[in-house]
Amino acid sequence: MEIVTQTAGAVTGFLHNPLRNTQLNDGDFKRESAPIERGNSPSLAPPAEPPKPATPRGPRNLKLRAALRLAKLHNLAIFPAKPNEKTPAFVGWQGAATSNAEAITKWWTENPDFNIGVSTQGLLVLDVDARKGGIENFKVWRDLMELAGDVLPKTLRVKTASGGLHYIFKLPHGVLIGNKTNRPVEGVDIRGNGGLIVGAGSTIKKSEDEPLNTYTILDDVPIAEAPEWLIEAIGRGRPKAASAGKRVAEETDEMVAKAEVWLHGRAPEEITEGNRDNGLYTVAAKLYDFGLRQATVQGMLAQ
Fold first, then answer.
1. How far apart are alpha carbons 168 and 78 in whole angstroms?
2. Is the dihedral of CA 253, 258, 261, 262 positive or negative?
3. Which of 47, 86, 194, 206 has the highest CB neighbour count under 10 A?
4. Total-model pTM
5. What's the pLDDT at 256?
6. How many CB atoms lie within 10 A of CB 53?
7. Of 288, 302, 229, nearest to 256 (Cα)?
8. Dihedral angle at the C-alpha atoms of 126, 127, 130, 134, nearest 10 degrees?
């Protein structure tokens, strides 16, 4: 009886010990269960749902993600190009080019190393070749156009693997622009209907000694519509407007001054031996575009 009394007192003292931070409940006194083997621990949480399929990530999926981005954000028609090359991966790419995410994902799942081809159907792309002096020539041409009041709108711009530039414009409905070389200046080519370019995210490595060069977006903005003056400067596949050949502005002292700057800075490149007649015609036509009268143009050419 004495033992029972002592035991009861010990339990009572334990339960009411002020040093304990928690108070035990009746449910805290449970029989110790048998140890549970590792890996077989039961879970009271509901079973997790299977993960949803997502676009694969990692170095080998960078080109797929880049291709999907060009298709979704810029509505470009995409097709596979051969790995480390600028040529289509298969015949019939013109009809296969698409902005459909499912088709694009299937192509790059089959070969993640495909470069990204972009159809230029319905586009006008200024392909500036750094290796042929295109960067310098294009800058001079652009500055002269701005001097005459013709400014290129900001549009999607890409740096090529060789250091060149792609200015990508969309064409107005019904306008046809073919593929041309050295237009509007030496070292700049035009990619249009039936053509292609290599898209941002593609890579080129010419040899083991050279680094891997990537096509990179410089100006990630919506693709602008090609301005009328640019289409006229390059040439198009539709009849000229009724105003073609007519002065589009009246002669002013300001325009005469701009024309003189253009004449002295550009004419020596236009007029060369063996090309004098065509050169004079080209220069005269440009001076006329400044709004100058025929007498003024003739006087400037006679100097």
1. 14
2. negative
3. 86
4. 0.62
5. 72
6. 6
7. 288
8. -50
Average pLDDT over residues 257-284: 59
- 134-147 helix and 253-270 helix, angle to the nearest 10 degrees: 160
> Does residue 167 contact residue 152 with C-beta atoms inside 8 Å?
yes
Helix or strand holding residue 197 (H, E): strand 196-198
Residue ranges per structural domain of the chain: 59-236, 253-302
CATH, domain range 59-236: 3.30.2250
* pLDDT tens per residue across span 78-116: 999 999 999 999 999 999 999 999 999 999 999 999 999
**Helix%, strand%, coil% for the chain, nearest 5:** 35, 15, 50
pLDDT band per the 50, 70, 90 thresholds, residue 298: low
* Residue 16, pLDDT above cutoff 70: no
